[in-house]
Amino acid sequence: MTSPTFPVRSMGMMILLLAGQFTAPHFAWLSDLSSRNGSHVKGSLEMYGGASKDSTIIELELKGDRPRSLRAWSVGRGTCSAPSQETLGKRVSYPALRIASNGTVKIEARLAVVLPDSGDFFVGVYESAAAKSRLLACGNLYLED
Q1: Could you tell me the CA-to-CA distances from 132 to 38, 122, 126, 139 in Å, in that order?
Q2: Shortest CA distance to 34 belongs to which of 127, 133, 125, 138?
Q3: CATH tag, 25-144
Q4: Which residue, 67, 141, 61, is CA-closest to 102?
Q5: How much is the pLDDT for 3?
Q6: HEC profile for 70-117?
Q7: Which residues contact 10 (CB under 8 A, 6 or more apart)?
Q8: CA dihedral defined by 119, 125, 127, 131, rounded to 10 degrees?
Q9: CB 103 within 8 A of CB 58
Q10: Given this model, what pLDDT does residue 25 score?
């Protein structure tokens, strides 16, 4: 009598192969923000997938801003030179930036959207939610594998 090891091994290999298809991608979007419109604000951003497939985490760090300012920010589709009005996720997902007494801020936002794997995106930091026409810093996002 022959042993049923071949079908069992094949089944195990199939399960391992299928499990690999559902693994979240391991990549991140990065950006270096540069000053705009006479400001001195600079910074960096990292955007990556959260714990579930439909969540995205954004970490933003800025320096060189006016102490104790309150700023608005968001990630949008397009580029700094050709922005669209479409924000990635809901605008309410982007908490206001409260600049510390040393002109810096570090913040994390959690979006209920799937991490994009392609496209053009930028991050903009604005004077305020009411003055989104005054861009203080901007950076185009790029993929890092």
Answers
A1: 15, 14, 5, 15
A2: 138
A3: 2.60.40.200
A4: 67
A5: 47
A6: EEEEEEEEECCCCEEEEECCCHHHCCCEECCCCCCEEEEEEECCCCCC
A7: none
A8: 20
A9: no
A10: 53
Write out 8-47 in H/E/C secondary structure.
HHHHHHHHHHHHHHCCCCCCEEEEEEEECCCCCCEEEEEE
Q: Are 53 and 24 in contact (CB under 8 A)?
A: yes
Are the C-beta atoms of 93 and 110 separated by less than 8 Å? Answer: yes
Please list the rounded mean pLDDT of every run of 10 residues in the chain (145 residues): 47 41 67 97 97 95 97 97 94 95 98 95 93 91 89
- Cα 104 from Cα 97, distance rounded (Å): 10
Largest CA distance in the chain: 83
Enter the tokens of residue 80: 């700094």
Residues 6+ apart with CB under 8 A from 54: 112, 113, 114
